[in-house]
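Morning!

This is the sequence you dropped in the shared folder:
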Amino acid sequence: MNLIQEAEKNMRYLRQWLLLTIVLFIIITPLAAYAQDDATGTPEPTPTQEGEAPPEAPAEGEGPEDEGPVPTAVPGEGPTPVPFDIAAEVRVNGAASGYEISQAVARLFNADYPNVEITVGVSGTAGGFDRFCNGETYFNHAARPIFESEATRCEENGVAWIELLLGYEGVVVAAHPEVAAFAACVTTGQLATAWSRAAEPTAAVEPTVTPEGYEAPEDEEPLALPTANPGVTNWNQVDASFPDLPLLLFGDRTNAAVTDLFTEFATGTQGDLRTDYIQNSRYQALVDEMVGKPGAMGFFGFNYFSLNEEELTLLEIDAGDGCVAPSAETIADGSYPLARPIYLYVAAEQVDNPAVRAFVDFYFSEEGLAQVSESGYFPASEEVYAQDRDAIVNKVTGRAFTEAPPEPEPVVTPTPTPEASEETPPAEGEESGAAPDLDAAAVAFAESCASCHGEGGQGGTVGPDLYASEDVRAMSADEIHDLIANGIDGTAMPGFGDTLAAEVIDNLVALLQSWQEGDDTAQ
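The structure's back. Tokens below.
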């Protein structure tokens, strides 16, 4: 019996040791595998559900040692993963419209990806397309659709583009509450009466004194001299039903994109805007000037307008289909007439760049698109943004929202040249009377403005590239003045936004003149 009991006791010990060994094996084996994975960087296999086959091993060349393309994410569901140590550059340029949006998106994106350098510049819509179609930039803001000539230049340079609708910008007409009491809604006809060039008062022209002894030929027509134009200076001249109240007008500068939009709508003709209104691109300053002035009316870009409803009132606009107030809904659905879409063009080949793809994915994510309204613009519909995201994922190139707009007639600005004689031929490599390339000169100015994007679009210095431009050297003072004031497509010069003061223009003209006259210290 003792032998049997001893054997049973030994069996119990053996079973306990076996059980302990199995438990230790179960515990230690995963820990050892985890330690090995941590040391080698090999990811832990994805667990499978019962009955499922384990995932297939990657094909040769697709394993962890092959970096391959960075995995992509669907836009709207977060940015594409980008290694934090990547050193890459994303270049954005174009119109002032949308500039604030890209700046805000870039700041948020850089919080997660600080090593991706994002440059956001302003060269105007046309200047931006020049750089975009040359392959210098990856994104272009545009306040209009791309011209066919620009699309052709892109094609010639091998730049395929994706057209995205980013949102809308609007122009509002605001007035003193006393005006809103009788003109809460103004028609296009009333705006044309108040704002067209014909409404601007002008003085009479004094007749030229006829020289003594001069006898005019019998068939000579008498000289027709302009007479004084009293202009439209009272609200009762705008509409007979309005009261006797002085008309005081305020608005953005004549060279601003907002002014172009308002002029075309109010008068029907670009450039047909009176010039005697109080101009300022600092909208809050205009609001402050209008406050307390009965009879005041002004136009502003909606994205900058700070409205105090107790001091100024937004007016509704009647373009023939009834009165419509500006709002996010009426601007997005097109019923508010003083609005236009803003576009973002993307170089299709750059979407394969991990940093660019991550940026555009973030741009059209919920957080990125929130910057449209945060920057004072009006977002498009979710259907539009879904189409944008699909175009990014599938690289859908070409026009998606627009038709080719009519292109403006080219403006040729002759350059004054000394009278040439047969004995003094033009210098080698020059054509007699050749005009400077204003677009190239504008680009030189834009590239030379190294840090002109401070608060409100001001600040910074003009770099030496401007002075090295042969096109700038060939320009007269008046041409330089027009270049800086109007840019390439009628908007304010790159870098200075709409806040470029007249004295800054004059100072730059004087500086360039000094340099042109041989004063190298002008730089």
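Headline: The chain has a mean pLDDT of 74.

More detail when I'm at my desk.
O.
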